Amino acid sequence: MHSAGLATAGTPRQRKWPSKRRIPVSHLGMSDPHQLFDDTSSAQSRGYGAQREPSGLGYPTASASPQGAFLNDPVSNMAMAYGSSLAAQGKELVDKNIDRFIPVTKLKYYFAVDTLYVGKKLGLLFFPYLHQDWEVQYQQDTPVAPRFDINAPDLYIPAMAFITYILVAGLALGTQERFSPDLLGLQASSALAWLTLEVLAILLSLYLVTANTDLTTIDLVAFLGYKYVGMIGGVLMGLLFGKIGYYLVLGWCCVSIFVFMIRTLRLKILAEAAAEGVPVRGARNQLRMYLTMAVAAAQPLLMYWLTFHLVR
Fold it and tell me: Which residue stretches of the chain are H helix?
């Protein structure tokens, strides 16, 4: 009764508060009731971080990026396709013209060498007298790579020998206190000029004698470039031992390159007679033999002409 009286007496002092209704967490879009902010990094968030579906309630829709709008444009797609076709045609045209003037595919064959081949080839250039089989090996009418056949011509040794010859020439001029960039450039240009003149003269001679040969221009450059190996040896020996060492080593290299060129080119220029195994005494074959000997004899002369002034 006492408690009832207290409740009755306290009734006028009570204020009526609005009823509190608990809102489910899912309606707030928050996975944790104690979380202060929505996690918009999750694709499963359904609150403010979720992308709103387009509706008629005035909410803005997600606008596409400029790149996507450009790619979706039919005109731009046609322009890109046309540009790609033009680029492909241009690349094909460039490749054809490059292969016409600079046979890149063929050049790869002449640089297919390894260390073992280089060592054997250098030995063959200095001692060609011990070699017996000079035939070039073929596989399905295609010559095998130089690293598999010591008789195959390559461009690696001539190119490296030419560069080394220029460096050795600069060293020789420097030891004589005659070095100058102009003189070294003259040495390199004269060596290239003589090589070009040799190639042109041989091609013209082959045309005049109507020689049916598989000897190509790159083959000629390779064979004619082997003489730089002997020139390097002669100049180095001249720097170490003077004129006597120069003449001894250069004389040996001259005879070696002469024998090497005779035994190599006779199978190229005299291919028909070599295939039959008997010498043909026709006038045409005699001209081919004279041409082979002339090319071989020109190598020692050029070796001396391009090196004698480097040793004093």
Answer: 2-9, 25-28, 66-72, 74-101, 104-110, 115-126, 156-175, 181-208, 217-225, 227-269, 271-276, 283-305
